Amino acid sequence: MEVIGETRDDAAGEAFDKVAKMIGLPYPGGPLIDKYAAHGNPHRFTLPRPQAPGLDFSFSGFKTAVLYLLQRERKSNPDFPGDALDDLCASVQHTIVSILLEKLEDAVKQTGINCVALAGGVSANSGLRSGIRERAAQHGWTVHIPDFEYCTDNAGMIGVAAHFLYHEGRFAALSTAPAARLPI
Fold first, then answer.
1. Which of 51, 86, 90, 91 fits as disulfide partner to 37, beta carbons 3.0 to 4.6 Å?
2. 87-99 pLDDT, tens per residue?
């Protein structure tokens, strides 16, 4: 296995959750953005598409742009997003999903590998699921998308693993340093 792209800051799921928090939605916010986006206009609000090099991702500038949009809109309407919640969520979802799909399409072109699988919490996002199916139909990809109940958040999986290790009495030494990106 070879890593050909990675996040420079937050993963897509974190971007969904952090934007949802800014909007005032409870955690986890990604599923709520997906829910509201289903009824909104994804083109009402234009959001930037961060240009991380190659196949890498970056959502820090995107989150900042959403924050500035919220601040700007709330100056004239303190209740924002209010009636615009569906459209804001649709715009957020459309932008994040578009970034992911474009990077995926670039990865397939660069590698020639056209068998694609989704995983992690964001694989439950309806926009991503339908978008990848559309691209697969356009380009002849084989896609593997888990059933919805298997689209679990990585943090949840780590928590469950820690639960069982705790009950087995298996602990790391206090001198163990955390490593978010272990080499494969």
1. 90
2. 999 999 999 999 9
CB contact at 8 A, 86 and 113: no
For residue 125 the two structure tokens come to 């996002």
Grade residue 181 by pLDDT with cuts at 50, 70 and 90: low
Whether residue 93 contacts residue 35, with contact meaning beta carbons closer than 8 Å, is answered with no
Letter string b/e over residues 99-121, b meaning 16 or more CB atoms within 10 A of that residue's CB: bbbebbbeebeeeeeeebebebb
SS3 category, 115:
strand
Task: Name the residue among 66, 136, 63, 123 with its Cα closest to residue 97.
Answer: 123
- pLDDT higher than 80, residue 17: yes
Check: CB of residue 16 under 8 Å from CB of residue 121: no
Cβ count near 155 (within 10 Å)? 13
What is the 8-class DSSP label of residue 27? S
Q: Do 52 and 97 form a contact (C-beta atoms < 8 A)? A: no
Residue type at position 146 = P
Q: Using DSSP, state whether 52 is helix, strand or coil.
A: coil
Read off the tokens for 131. Answer: 């978008």
- The tens digit of pLDDT for each residue in 97-120 reads 999 999 999 999 999 999 999 888
